[in-house]
Amino acid sequence: xxxxxxxxxxxxxxxxxxxxxxxxxxxxxxxxxxxxxxxxxxxxxxxxxxxxxxxxxxxxxxxxxxxxxxxxxxxxxxxxxxxxxxxxxxxxxxxxxxxxxxxxxxxxxxxxxxxxxxxxxxxxxxxxxxxxxxxxxxxxxxxxxxxxxxxxxxxxxxxxxxxxxxxxxxxxxxxxxxxxxxxxxxxxxxxxxxxxxxxxxxxxxxxxxxxxxxxxxxxxxxxxxxxxxxxxxxxxxxxxxxxxxxxxxxxxxxxxxxxxxxxxxxxxxxxxxxxxxxxxx
Length: 281
Hints:
It contains 6 helices and 14 strands.
């Protein structure tokens, strides 16, 4: 019932992989590293997920229906924090804090902002604000991430004051949104990394085919999401990612206001989006 991908096998070695497949080192019951619901390696198909930092590696387990077996590169400090949390969980001392009432399922300003490069951008970087919430489409709640820079994004090699954030994203597969009520089209090669029940990164395709995806946006500290957001993500295995230029969306305190801001941005022609698989590689 255990899936060990070639990438994980290459990292942990053939002997350890065979011990896992034989059930010698499997935990039996586990908390899915994606949706956080309980799983059992003896009763349902389970993926092995290896989180690798600069000096530390952690082997975790997930429902195969949530994410495939894979190797995930994580910043060393994030991985050390995860190890401490896992150790505390094992001794019964760890508790996950409840989300703040009225929050639109987490905003990046609650944690230090990340500094990702725009698609195709070299060393020039910008700060992206990230808001997580749920969007109602055809009577179904979908997990969504809204990305908005704090300032204009310049095209690589450009010295002008223009904002090329949306054109750069469109060149990388995002599509303009004219109606928020419509499900965004998939954007090839991109994915959302939700690990250990928290949002870690938005991944873009690697520059070299056949290599691991690279983080377009990565949280300085993993962002907590609500149980409702995780449940919707685990059900659909996808996340809707919306993006708009600086000043288009703002920090909205409620999901209804976030929806209104998205609709206003779409009406103004300044909203793009794409549907991404959850933690795909």
